[in-house]
Write a structure and sequence with these properties.
single chain; alpha/beta; 8-stranded parallel β-barrel
Length: 224
């Protein structure tokens, strides 16, 4: 089962920073989840929110700030907001790359096209089917996953994941049952459960037979 660190090790480190990603790897994660947005000058950066206000020392919309302006900010404990290229060079595990802004699609597609090894270790995800369809159109060999917040019924998960051209369903664990996971597997889909904050929830995920879990606290989980 794949253990994915949500924005790295969100529970213990400044989210979406190289420090957080390295901590998640050190804590045993097989994969790092991160979020992609684009700066005013067309650079692919790691940032969850549409603005830098919550997670840095600055203010303003990511899309209205240049890379230099964003890099001048403190993203926590002296960390800088990393670029996608910096991150893939520094971290050698798998990536779960959530596209937060559609402007990131062509930049990400070009990055994956130019580096087959990176493409092999990257799962592109989104809540939005139009983003998943756009990345597949730009790079047909991409592996994609549809994220669900509150997990709808199994038939809807299957239908929506397939309609988005995705092969992974990333589902809220509260709505999952072993039967639902089995049905998703029968439909040819892989399943990630989230969030998994502790060993009790990890045991639940193991009983569900999911393919992966996402956690804010990888240090709390013993790798199965």
């Amino acid at each position: 089962m794949i253990i994915t660190g949500h924005r790295g090790a969100l529970g213990t480190e400044p989210e979406n920073t190289l420090r957080s990603f390295r901590r998640a790897v050190a804590d045993g994660c097989d994969e790092i989840e991160l979020d992609l947005r684009v700066t005013a000058d067309g650079e692919l950066v790691i940032m969850h929110d549409a603005t830098v206000d919550r997670t840095t020392s600055g203010t303003g919309a990511v899309e209205e700030l240049t890379l230099a302006e964003i890099r001048a900010l403190d993203a926590g404990l002296g960390e800088k907001v990393p670029t996608w290229s910096e991150t893939v060079a520094a971290i050698d595990v798998r990536f779960q790359a959530e596209v937060k802004a559609e402007a990131a699609v062509p930049l990400l597609a070009q990055s994956l096209k130019s580096d087959p090894a990176l493409a092999e270790r990257t799962l592109v995800t989104s809540f939005h089917p139009e983003i998943l369809l756009a990345i597949r159109e730009a790079f047909p060999d991409v592996t994609t996953g549809h994220i669900f917040g509150r997990t709808p019924d199994t038939a809807e998960v299957i239908a929506r994941t397939r309609a988005a051209g995705a092969s992974w369903s990333l589902c809220g664990i509260a709505g999952l049952t072993p039967e639902a996971v089995a049905d998703l597997h029968t439909a040819g889909l892989s399943v990630t459960a989230w969030p998994v904050p502790d060993t009790t929830t990890l045991a639940t995920a193991l009983s569900l037979a999911v393919d992966g879990i996402t956690t804010d606290h990888p240090h709390r989980l013993a790798h199965p």
